[in-house]
């Protein structure tokens, strides 16, 4: 079939909206009509050329929601008409990783997924003159139709709106999951969240959900103060406006250091500050941000010797097929908020405007509705 997609032909260039060819699902695969997709900073990270794994031409996008149109041979858990959220962290429930309760990082298709290919080593997308186009994070939600492995789809309830639940495909689950699954924040905790964008605000609402006493937000953009407060932030710090050292300031503000800190930017200097503002003896710092190729973190080992822990999290530690339907339920029951964070709704033709808004700091989440 043919479908419309925003194609990243080269690193650093705007996406090009065009018709592409899409082959039908092979064994174990599913054809999905994408109804809506969010634009995450990770899409921009890859589009810009900063991703060491980035390969082109590719159809980016990994934060979608849609409807199953067709299933390939052997697919048993999904049927046409099912509503689904694509999973860049699949859940095969069989690999060594899925069988270990300590991780959500299913590895059953990770190597082909990282190369932009389906598990059989080929791509379903091509240009109209027959040149292959790569998949992205196994999802490619910047196409109106896409093919995914069955294990990379969470089946969700049919009454949930696509233009909101697409955000659960990355930002919402990553932020809330980092608090609940990775940090396991306890009632009464003191938390510091660095970067109040599409991920950081979900960390804030996760901390509120977990019953944290203090939730400090840190951002260079003062407009993010009101945003943080909207979701439970108790204090705001703009590093460019404080006198002296940021870490010292945060340690004082928390009365000795954070029980939990979260880096939601992708800046290795901020990652260091996030670790070092954690409380001596027990503070944990969770890295969520994706840093550019070649960037490395550093700190004095004494920071770890004296009881601070550095952790990282992908997709908020969530096991997608199991956890994502539950997060959709939380949204539908009013336990978590999504609607106010979706600040812009765009057509596919306007997708590059979504990246401009991200750079300007004008959007929390822009969503493309097909
Ligand atoms: P975003 O652009 O919406 O938000 C980033 C925020 O950080 C902005 O509010 C910006 O003003 C602020 N900021 C930038 N530099 C700063 C600094 N030096 N100090 C303080 N604040 C600063 O991005 P997002 O979509 O929220 O994504 C955040 C990061 O998380 C990205 O690196 C993204 O790739 C990553 N991410 C990781 C996962 C994962 O599973 N680990 C999932 C999704 C996104
Ligand atoms: N390709 C990058 C790494 C990118 C990365 O860390 N991705 C996160 C998800 S970000 C979603 O917005 C992730 O899930 N990582 C685990 C994995 O297996 O990719 C690089 O540096 O090479
Ligand atoms: Zn993302």
From TrEMBL:
Q: Which class of enzymes does this protein belong to? A: oxidoreductase
- Asked if Disulfide bond is a keyword of the record, the answer is no
- Annotated keywords: Metal-binding, NAD, Oxidoreductase, Zinc
Q: Which InterPro entries match?
A: ADH-like_C (IPR013149), ADH-like_N (IPR013154), ADH_3 (IPR014183), ADH_Zn_CS (IPR002328), GroES-like_sf (IPR011032), NAD(P)-bd_dom_sf (IPR036291)
> SUPFAM superfamilies of this UniProt entry?
GroES-like, NAD(P)-binding Rossmann-fold domains
The catalytic activity, as recorded, is: a primary alcohol + NAD(+) = an aldehyde + NADH + H(+); S-(hydroxymethyl)glutathione + NADP(+) = S-formylglutathione + NADPH + H(+); S-(hydroxymethyl)glutathione + NAD(+) = S-formylglutathione + NADH + H(+); a secondary alcohol + NAD(+) = a ketone + NADH + H(+)
Q: Where is the Alcohol dehydrogenase-like N-terminal domain?
A: 27-116
Alcohol dehydrogenase-like C-terminal domain location is 198-330
Q: What is its EC number?
A: 1.1.1.284
Write down the Gene3D superfamilies for this protein, in alphabetical order. Medium-chain alcohol dehydrogenases, catalytic domain, NAD(P)-binding Rossmann-like Domain
Q: Which family does it belong to?
A: Belongs to the zinc-containing alcohol dehydrogenase family. Class-III subfamily.
Listed name of the protein: S-(hydroxymethyl)glutathione dehydrogenase
Taxonomic source organism: Paralimibaculum aggregatum
């Amino acid at each position: 079939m043919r479908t419309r997609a925003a194609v990243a032909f080269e690193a650093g260039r705007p996406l090009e909206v065009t018709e592409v060819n899409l082959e039908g699902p092979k064994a174990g695969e599913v054809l999905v009509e994408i109804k809506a997709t969010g634009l995450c900073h990770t899409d921009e990270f890859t589009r810009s050329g900063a991703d060491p794994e980035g390969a082109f031409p590719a159809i980016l996008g990994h934060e979608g929601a849609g409807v199953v149109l067709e299933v390939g041979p052997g697919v048993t858990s999904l049927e046409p008409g099912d509503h689904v959220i694509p999973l860049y962290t699949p859940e095969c429930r069989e690999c060594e990783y899925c069988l270990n309760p300590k991780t959500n990082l299913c590895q059953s298709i990770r190597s082909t997924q990282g190369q932009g290919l389906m598990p059989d080593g080929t791509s379903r997308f091509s240009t109209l003159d027959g040149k292959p186009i790569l998949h992205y994070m196994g999802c490619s939600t910047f196409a109106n139709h896409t093919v995914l492995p069955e294990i990379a789809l969470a089946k969700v309830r049919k009454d949930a709106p696509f233009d909101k639940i697409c955000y659960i495909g990355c930002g919402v689950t990553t932020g809330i999951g980092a608090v609940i699954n990775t940090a396991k924040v306890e009632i009464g905790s003191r938390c510091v969240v660095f970067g109040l964008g599409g991920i950081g605000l979900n960390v804030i609402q996760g901390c509120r959900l977990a019953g944290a006493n203090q939730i400090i937000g840190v951002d260079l953009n003062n407009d993010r103060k009101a945003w943080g407060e909207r979701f439970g932030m108790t204090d705001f710090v703009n590093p460019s406006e404080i006198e002296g050292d940021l870490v010292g300031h945060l340690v004082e503000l928390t009365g000795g250091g954070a029980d939990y800190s979260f880096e939601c930017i992708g800046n290795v200097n901020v990652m260091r500050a996030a670790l070092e503002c954690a409380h001596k003896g027990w503070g944990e710092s969770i890295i969520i941000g994706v840093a550019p190729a070649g960037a490395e973190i550093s700190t004095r080992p004494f920071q770890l010797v004296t009881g601070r822990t550095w952790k990282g999290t992908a997709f908020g530690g969530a096991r997608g097929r199991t956890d994502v339907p539950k997060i959709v339920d939380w949204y539908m029951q009013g336990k978590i908020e999504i609607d106010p964070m979706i600040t812009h709704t765009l057509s596919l033709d306007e997708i590059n405007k979504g990246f401009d808004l991200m750079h300007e700091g004008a959007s929390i989440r822009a969503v493309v509705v097909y």
